[in-house]
Write a structure and sequence with these properties.
disordered N terminus; two-stranded antiparallel sheet; 61% helix; 3-stranded antiparallel beta sheet; 289 residues; mainly alpha; 12 helices; Arc Repressor Mutant, subunit A
Length: 289
Amino acid sequence: MGKKKSKYKGYPMIKKIPDQFWFPFWVDKWIFGSMRIEFNPVERAIWVDLLALAAKDDGFIRANEETPYPPEQLAGLLVYDITDFKTAIENFVEKNKIKRDKNGILYITNWNKYKLANSYKRILKHRKVLLGETESVTSETESVTSETESVTSETESVTSETENVTQIKSNQIKSNHNNKKTTSSAPNDNNRSKQSQKINFNFISKKWENITDEDLTFLSDSYPACDIKIELKKMAAWLVANPKKRKKDYRRFINNWLSRQQDSGGTKGIKKSGLDSWLEKSKAKDELV
């Protein structure tokens, strides 16, 4: 039998290096603590899996900073019955084992107890007292320190080489730029400064910036079925309604928008004579050729 396709394609699993590769699991608390009294075997198994998943994101269980995992996806990921899984989550929230924010993101309430740093110090302390491994622990610490210093030294070497290469390239670019300045004429410099002017949309004033009359004329000639001013207002309204979808190249955004509008018949209510005129001009050019 083939695998069922998940319908939750918009919530990818975070693939990153875990914040810690293991977490402390206290034997007495697990065997004699409240978990064994308050939760059934399935819920206790789910709890351990959630701890492992939370270790990947500093106590959080989420798809990203703003998006929670749907219960169905988590149940499928951890291979549990969805009803058992939802019941377990509600019990964990009710007993304050897990916190759930307004977006539905889960967080292990006492995650600081499972953090590796402080717990590992306590483990080292017990090893020194109970097993007499003071020298062994010191040796391990020195080994890790030595490896860290070695990696740091290599990193500094690579950084130094990178800086040298960057400086050489920077000098070459400056040299080429100076040569172009001496060989080019003043009118070309003016044209280049005009062309480099970047179209921008100001989200505070909600207005376009750096759109010249030449730009409007060029766009009108290129997209005769579109009322450029009306379409620019429609683009502005769309950008204000979608502030997270800011563009790096607004000139390309404008052209793509007008191209789609042109293909779909142009701006609603525009006179058809403009399009007919453009088609006649185009036909006349073809006949001349």
